[in-house]
Amino acid sequence: MNLEHKFMGPEAQLVVDGTEVAGYASLFGAPDKGGDVVERGAYGRSLERLGQKGARVKMLWQHDPAQPIGVWDEVREDDRGLWVKGRILREVEKGREAAALIEAGAIDGLSIGYRTLRATKNDKGGRLLSELELWEVSLVTFPMLPDARVGAKGEEPEARIMRELAGVFDDARRVLVPK
What we know:
Layout: E1 4-8, E2 14-17, E3 20-27, E4 37-38, H1 44-53, E5 58-61, E6 64-77, E7 81-88, H2 93-104, E8 109-121, E9 127-140, E10 150-151, H3 157-176
Parallel strand pairs: 2-10, 4-9, 5-9
Antiparallel strand pairs: 1-8, 2-3, 3-7, 5-6, 6-7, 8-9
């Protein structure tokens, strides 16, 4: 069995509120550093099979199957990507550590663990992933997709993106229009 990992970065914006975490673990149409792109609907059958069995996607620390740190209470696809919402368990040693590191801003990445069921080559040198068997979503140090990171408490992903974009325009204006 080939377990693969796909990391997300700041765009996914995992929001932390105490021990609750929520955000996008995967974004459709966004190429990762390897050129792979997840197609809309790629997780649908996997989530359906898990639901039929009464099983859950696991929440792991750094993809280590020996270190579950919480539970994902909600995992679903929407038009944008794979949305997850869950709880870090502070009763677990690694859960306490993960929560502290996230709150301090030291850890801010998300990554999925999956097996590819259907894929084709894409024009970016990677793959178009059209069906995946989702096993786990991990909190990680280094995301493969640089746009999936932990967000500030209560901050919507769009708000951070707009604030960062405004900062880019302000910087450009300072360079182009000197005082």
